[in-house]
Amino acid sequence: TMNANAAEKHLKIGYSMPAATAGYMARAIYWAKKGMADWEAKDKNIEFLYVNAENVTKQANDIEDLMAKGINVLIVWPYDASVTSVIEKAYKSGIYTVVMDRGTSKVCYDVYLSNDDEGYTREGTEWLCKKLNYRGNLVLIEGIPCPINTVRIETIKKTAAQYPGIKILDSQPGEWRKDKALAIMENYLQKYRNIDAVYTADDDMMLGALQAYKESRRKDIKYFLGGACDKNVIKMIMDGKEPLVQANVTYPPDQCATVVGVAILGARGKNFEGFYQKKLPVRIILAAELVTRENAASYYFPDEP
Amino acid sequence: MIKKITGRFRKFHYQKYASLIALALLFIVSSILSPYFLQFQNILNILRQISYTGMIALGQTFVIISGGIDLSVGSLTAFNASVGILFLNYLMKIFSNEFIAMAGGIIAALIMGLLAGSLNGFLITRGRIAPFIVTLGSMAIFRSLALFVGSAGEIRSVSGFYGTFGMNSILFLPVPVFIMLVLTAVLSITLNNTRYGRYLCAVGSSARVAMFSAINVDRIKFIAYTVSGVLVSISAVMLSSRFNAVSTSNMGMGFELDAIAAVIIGGTPLTGGRGTIWGTIVGAIILGIINNMLNMLGVSPYLQGTVKGLVIIGAVYIQRQKA
Amino acid sequence: MIKKITGRFRKFHYQKYASLIALALLFIVSSILSPYFLQFQNILNILRQISYTGMIALGQTFVIISGGIDLSVGSLTAFNASVGILFLNYLMKIFSNEFIAMAGGIIAALIMGLLAGSLNGFLITRGRIAPFIVTLGSMAIFRSLALFVGSAGEIRSVSGFYGTFGMNSILFLPVPVFIMLVLTAVLSITLNNTRYGRYLCAVGSSARVAMFSAINVDRIKFIAYTVSGVLVSISAVMLSSRFNAVSTSNMGMGFELDAIAAVIIGGTPLTGGRGTIWGTIVGAIILGIINNMLNMLGVSPYLQGTVKGLVIIGAVYIQRQKA
Amino acid sequence: MSGCLLKMQDICKEFSSVAVLTDVTIEVMRGEVLGIIGENGAGKSTLMKILSGIYTPTSGKIVFEEKAVVIEDPLAAKKLGISIIPQEFNLINELTVYDNIFLGSEIRKKNGLLDKRGMMERTRELLKELEVEIKPDEKIENLSTMHKQMVEICKAVSMDAKLLIMDEPTSVLSRHEIDILFRLMRRLKNQGTTIIYISHKLKEIKAICDRVMVLRDGELIFTEMIQDVTVLEMAQYMVGRELNQVFPVKKVPAAEVVFEVQNLTVPGVLEGISFQLKKGEILGLAGLVGAGRTAVAETIMGIRKRSSGEIFRNGKRILIWDPQDSVANGINYLSEDRQGTGILTNFSVIQNTTLVSLPIYCRYFFQYILKKKEQEATLKHKERFNIKTQSLDTKLEYLSGGNQQKVSLAKSIDPAPEVLIANEPTRGVDVSAKQEIYRFINSLAEEGLSCIFISSEQEEIIGMCHRVIVMKDGRITGSLEGESINEEEIMFLATGIREGDFRS
Ligand SMILES: Nc1ncnc2c1ncn2[C@@H]1O[C@H](COP(=O)(O)OP(=O)(O)OP(=O)(O)O)[C@@H](O)[C@H]1O
Ligand SMILES: Nc1ncnc2c1ncn2[C@@H]1O[C@H](COP(=O)(O)OP(=O)(O)OP(=O)(O)O)[C@@H](O)[C@H]1O
Ligand SMILES: [Mg+2]
Ligand SMILES: [Mg+2]
């Protein structure tokens, strides 16, 4: 296969992501790097330029810088959809463009690959409601106010609204941070005498909230549900020693590695095995899976940060 | 006697051009390290990239010379841009004429910037509240208002034209770069050759002495914050035109630190009383080159902060060293 | 004559207790607005929530009195905590004794804080670089080093004991609150009753006069930054003990603004030269109550910033008004 | 041209309920030079600040040019044509000389921009008129105190005011500059400008004023045409008691040399400065502006970096790199620039007094300050120099200029130094306090203190010093002792006419 590869077109792949500001993003970056390293080891004709941005404007700059360095493939996890116009510029200039996760506001990509934000919180909410026998008080801790957060929270509210016995008491922003979530949980515990479950849709925040609950020595809460499969949380579920934490929903950060393969396939005009179409799918949405004690082991990656 | 004179002469020049020397050094090092650096397009990119915070840093220079600080610039960028685009969209609905809508939107953003800046200025001068607190508060307020009007999401302009005008060129320069340079020239003249500029330095150096010299201290400070607000809105217009949208939760994040850093790297002391407008632009370019080089050299993302921190400290150290 | 005395009396008291009055007002308003506010546990919660940035704000007070600023505290929190836990884990592997490991980890974190603070102090005094720039640079550096050692993720301690000691109570107070109060008392005495405190104010008032008065200006400033570094590491130990882990990407994010805000709300001017340690704690509590009330009242996430900004400005305005 | 220009009637001023001025009524005639004198803290500056719009009076009214006026801020004063040379410098350090002179009344070109060249030209003329050799575009922060004062004078004069207030303009000037100033004042007077002149130098009052008023404790107690009073009478009215012999009797110092400087050189400023100081000796340093006296003091203290030179204490060489070293070696300095380097205005009287000597008030453990001890020591100084202050905890910004100077002096002697370098110790201090200071320094000298006494007042140098070194252009041009210390000799050496006749 070495020879076959040598004949292939040289790919200079620019990969732009937001910087790690939450635990989840650190794992995403880990997978992105893993994906790049694996491919680099496999194929001499592939070169990666990786950048990450702590704000939108920086990401727009990053993409311009990548273009100045003559990339022919761009993988971008947009900070948010407002970088669309810059991605569009790259796309229009003939760069093979793969957009992931937070997405763009118009179609200016060859492939879009993402986790399923709606499915993510729908699965979680359904599980929680079921566990509570469709009756009980829920408190939410949300992330930083922004579009994906809005989608998630709306989905939770919509899903829970199907069940009249479920009441959402409150929803406050924990900024996807453990310490903020902890403070918010402390405040909830003061304010609400009776809480049945806490849903944060993020494992960092869930762990912070759990900490606050344990410190309070209260006994009312039955379930804490985070999300996105932090390895420590999966371990907890596997071990089954923490009755408060029994499930999780995937929002797999390995999409960042998957996307590398997808981009390379697409840029070389190839396709998945057994796929009869010539072109790769334009939109690939990865399923959100429910993780419980039964299947937890297969979602456990001890090497993740 | 001759020695004395040359000594003073040298000192004078060095003080004035210290930040330029740091820039020149960084420039030379960068062109050696990366083959892409000196490409015309790359230089233009850097200039455009810094132009947005550059404009903001110009206003910040005035504020800092006056002895204050403006932390609200980043949030205000998002809020001004939101107001501008909302108004543009509204006008499009009524007139369905892109030019009228665009003009209206831009004017709305500018007026909002003016009002927001005056509000800061008012609280600081009339309310006698520390600038740090007022602008820390308004930083939270403007961001929150932007989130509120945009439901924490994006506000997109319905005019395609708006999304391109900021991308054109004037005299071979990208529009925002051109505007930044014009603003720099105007503010530089204001600082060095007008009464207001003199009073600004006087107020920043000693509000008491300025007051005794029959200068209306409050008015001078008030104007500085208002200028800052207006420059923020110019930047907001250019930036939202670049994206043809505003991300209410992210736009302008961290601009305040970038802008203040540019001002200080450029040679204006945080204590106020004196300063240089061109220096600020040099400072902004230095920061831009650092970011550009981190990408060009492919420095590991985790270590970029270390390199960036070291270069910033180094750039200012060079300036101090021989002064 | 009586009028004369009461006049002075009133003025004196007001200046000194202005921030306390703002706190009292906020306290009254809060207890009216929310029935949960006055619960003993809620008050304890607020105290514990503010204790981490509170300690940091104490060091920041020293730095600000000296006429400087320390922006690196937030990043340093993450870096110190990382160093502490990494060392703890390492010792556990060697000795497999929780006490030795924990003691070693804590000492490592403290030493790291001391070194980091001294580095800031060294660059500022010997390098003659503006504090804003040095600490802006080291803010980037410390965060980057933390990300590097933790691959931007979480570093968890292997000792269960470490995770509990920060949760105990001393004299009915949570450990971090107790430590914060002890530190407050010690630093307050240092500021008001010792030679160092006097010199610190002198240096902040006028470095030149201090130099002419045979005060080692550089040493005084250096110590201020070192104290800040050490206090940051105490806070880092307490915070990482609470989670028994460090999140390298976001621990301490924004602490610098919170700490500086607490200092200024507490009545220490950003220009330095004077200040109050107790005021800083009052400032931190004011900020804590604001956050608590935003949650308790269930203010919409989008508008929380507006309310918070207004209350901060208002709290400082009350202080200024009658002073 | 005659008649009343200004009338201040029943002016009262209180600061936080403490009366500083009570029912002061003064009339100023057109074209006269009115002298106002009074002890430190009598309220002179306060009265003038009311006139220039910095303070508003608690009660009373002001009539200017027959119209009742309210001077609510400095702008109002300026519009009326009142300009002031304040007691403390009112200059922006970051700006240039011409910027400062025209601050608030800039010359502008037709297009609205500043006419820098025009302002510089005008400044050059003004400076030339006052015979000041500084560049119009020099920054204020690079000027010596004396030059700053000359800039203040230019600034006030440039406004062509109807009423010119001068609050102790000569306290930082030397003979030569004072002569220039007086010439200027006479010319202004002839042009019709009215001048209020405040000074503690009563001879100057006698020489330049037409009329004199005396304030004591905030009350006007005496007004007289100048020809009808003697200097001695003025002093008596001020102080309220008889003043005798101003300078104390000099005692012969011991023969033992306790302090020596050899070949001190600071490139471009000082060259080959060598002298000895005996135990109990008061050594005068005389010279014109910029002769380098301050530079000598600052170099000994370690504030200025020297390129060569050695310093000996009791015959042993000591190393001095910064003021900590010199203070540790028993050398202390009273700075000439009170505001810039001498005191901290936001520190209290106690805190200022013990700023250098703080270690002796600290317990070893934790360097805990013994506040009671501090207070007792400060109280002694307050009583000795008659420091007028509401309390020892009052911040210095609320003290009058002369009282600040007294605190500054207290600060420099509180550590009980072996060698005191006193640079203009009596600047802005009233006659009786001056006398007290002379006595005190003399008695310290008798107890073994050696003093380097720098002053621009020849009289002081002559009256106080055992020996005088005269400097010119950074070099020592001669040394005078005993009978040969007189004005004539000093001037010869300072101006360099008889250079070479004396070598120290
Ligand atoms: N802002 C102030 N607040 C309180 N007290 C003040 C203030 N300014 C001056 N004083 C007090 O008013 C009194 C008069 O001060 P003033 O400066 O007028 O004295 P002066 O006659 O000019 O003395 P000097 O000869 O020392 O300059 C002093 O006792 C001083 O302490
Ligand atoms: N910062 C400086 N840099 C360079 N030269 C200086 C500086 N300060 C003073 N000089 C020069 O050093 C010389 C000595 O000045 P110095 O102030 O010691 O004189 P002086 O005799 O004390 O005069 P004065 O009576 O005004 O205090 C002068 O020629 C002055 O111009
Ligand atoms: Mg006075
Ligand atoms: Mg001198």
What features would you describe in this structure?
The complex is a heterotetramer, with 1 copy of chain A (305 residues), 2 copies of chain B (323 residues) and 1 copy of chain D (504 residues). Chain A is α/β, with parallel strands linked by helices. Chain A has helices at 2-7, 23-42, 56-68, 84-92, 117-131, 147-161, 178-191, 203-216, 231-239, 255-267, and strands spanning 11-18, 46-53, 73-76, 96-100, 111-115, 136-142, 166-173, 197-199, 223-225, 248-249, 283-286, 290-291. Chain A is elongated. Chain A starts with a helix and ends in a 14-residue tail after the last strand. Chain B has helices spanning 2-33, 40-65, 73-95, 98-125, 131-149, 162-165, 175-193, 195-205, 207-212, 217-243, 255-265, 277-296, 301-321; strands at residues 154-156, 169-170, 173-174, 245-247. Chain B is globular. Mean pLDDT of chain B is 90; it is low at 1-11. Chain B contains 13 helices and 4 strands. Chain B has a single domain, classed as Orthogonal Bundle (ABC transporter involved in vitamin B12 uptake, BtuC), CATH 1.10.3470. Chain D has 17 helices and 20 strands. Chain D has helices at residues 44-51, 74-80, 97-101, 116-129, 145-158, 175-190, 202-208, 231-239, 293-301, 323-328, 338-342, 349-353, 371-385, 401-413, 431-446, 458-464, 487-495; strands spanning 4-15, 18-29, 33-38, 59-64, 67-69, 82-85, 163-167, 194-198, 211-216, 219-225, 257-266, 270-278, 282-287, 308-313, 316-318, 331-334, 419-423, 450-454, 467-472, 475-481. The longest helix of chain D is centred in the middle third of the chain and has 16 residues, at 175-190. Chain D starts with a strand and ends in a 9-residue tail after the last helix. The mean pLDDT of chain D is 91. The chains are: A alpha/beta (305), B mainly alpha (323), D alpha/beta (504). Bound molecules: adenosine-5'-triphosphate (2 copies) and magnesium ion (2 copies).
